[in-house]
Design a protein that fits this description.
The structure is a single chain. With 288 residues, the protein is α/β, with parallel strands linked by helices. The chain folds into three domains: 11-42, no CATH class; 48-212, P-loop containing nucleotide triphosphate hydrolases (Rossmann fold), CATH 3.40.50.300; 226-287, Ribonucleotide Reductase Protein R1, domain 1. The protein has eleven helices and eleven strands. The protein binds guanosine-5'-triphosphate, magnesium ion (MG) and zinc ion (ZN). Residues 163-164, 191-192, 212 line the site of magnesium ion (MG).
Amino acid sequence: MAIEGETRERIALTRGRRHDLCVGDEVEAQPSGIGQAVIEALHPRRNLMLRSDATRSKTLAANIDQIAYVLAAEPPFSEQLAVRVLCAAASARIPLLWLANKADRAESTRVLHPRLAVYRRLGLKVFELSARYDSPEAMHRSDWFAALQGRTTLLLGQSGMGKSTLINRLVADAALRTQQWSLALQSGKHTTTFSRSFALDSPAVPGSRIIDSPGFQQFGLAHLTLSEIAHALPEWKERLGGCRFHNCRHLGEPDCAIRTAVDRGEVDAQRMRIWEELVEEQERVLRR
Ligand SMILES: Nc1nc2c(ncn2[C@@H]2O[C@H](COP(=O)(O)OP(=O)(O)OP(=O)(O)O)[C@@H](O)[C@H]2O)c(=O)[nH]1
Ligand SMILES: [Mg+2]
Ligand SMILES: [Zn+2]
């Protein structure tokens, strides 16, 4: 953590067994010894991104301006996970954009394009880049870089999509620290195990921050109702009033506006399959 007016960061300790603090939190803290501080109180949060399973929820970041979801064709992109993150962000009222990384891998990236097009048509901002190979000049001229300026952005995504690589390119001293950490851990791996906020080097607009986070294989939405999930899907939201039943789950009920739209090709069928899996999981959570 950082204390206002200090340049060096401190290791923060919490009183009691408080585990719900997360990156981006603003706290009351007292310096305690060299390089340490004790957190006394948590300031109210402007927003909070979280994921949850049936038994517990995990806070991911607080007080952020937006989420950049980093995806790529390799390792395989899970649209189901991406939709889950879209739903969690929408319900937390946090704007979200997609960074489709590894554009240098033209062959594999090609298969992503039809899916990216679906989300662009739904109004999502989708940018393509190569965190590893784009030149710094190209990065600084890009629309996605402009979208990061002046904001605090949380990078989220499956493991191996390139979140840390991107931060290493954007933050001059991040790479160094990454190396030090992995040396200290004797792990030899560069996979991220905890979230960390960095000042983004953007001379034009001060105050930009970017947050690295550990990749995930699962993203539970136990904290959302089915209705909240349905309302987070924009092309569904506008049709929800059209179903015959007020509590339609869009799983084959008669006169379902969403099914009709899927049959007519107006709503993407892949999104319907993801919805079916979400309903099934949500009902499993409720049965517990
Ligand atoms: N070809 C290519 N490889 C990339 C690109 N960006 C990242 N990679 C590679 O992808 C692998 C994973 O990158 P990381 O930055 O560690 O991925 P991450 O999203 O931080 O992964 P976690 O920390 O596990 O969540 C590394 O081998 C990177 O070199 C890119 O633009 N093109
Ligand atoms: Mg990482
Ligand atoms: Zn319906």
